[in-house]
Fold this protein.
Amino acid sequence: SIGNDKNTSSTFYLTDLDTKRLSWGIEQVRKIQSVGPLSNKTGRELTPGSNIVGRELRNFVRNASMTNSHWCGSTRMGVDKNDSVVDEYLRVHGVDNLRIVDAGVMPLIPNGNTHGTTCVVALRAVDLILG
C-alpha cells in the first residue's frame, strides 16, 4: 500500500503552494493564540512546537499532513434513477425493502464535517421508516 512504501509520500497531493498556505495558517493561529485573553486560557503548542518556523514548518506540514476522508455522495440521493442511487425517501432505486442511511446519500459534500449532516439523515430515516 502507499502508506507502507518508503519511496512514496503520503502527502503526494500537497503542492508547494498548499504547504505554504497551511504553514501560513499555523502561523496565524499562533499569533491569535499569543494575545490575551486567549493566551491566558491555552497551554503551549505541542506539535510541531512554536520554535518550528519557516522551511522547517513547511517540511513539518508536508510530512505530518494526511487526508481526512469524509466520504459522501457514493450513493447519492435524487429523483432521477439515471444519476442517483436512492430516492428522496432513502429507498434504493429498483430494490424493494432496502434503504441507505449514511453520508453516501448526500449529493454534495457539506461545508464542514459530515457527522452532523449524517445524524440528520438518520433522524429523517427514522421518521420515514416508522411513518
